[in-house]
Amino acid sequence: MGKLKEYIERTSYMMVGVQFALAIIIGLAIGYYLDRQFNTFPWLTLFWLIIGFFAGLKNVYRELKKVTK
Length: 69
Prior knowledge:
The chain is mainly alpha-helical.
């Protein structure tokens, strides 16, 4: 049982990194798409990149809070 719990904890830590990266990539993709649609490059890309970064930080905080309980 100890190894299973250890495995679950390690997996949770890996998922935190994946969630952080995905939030940034999704924000970047949305911004790039909108910039191409409205011909405003690079402003919407930068804006959504920042939104994705902070969404990723929020996910990291939430997951770490859940893991440390």
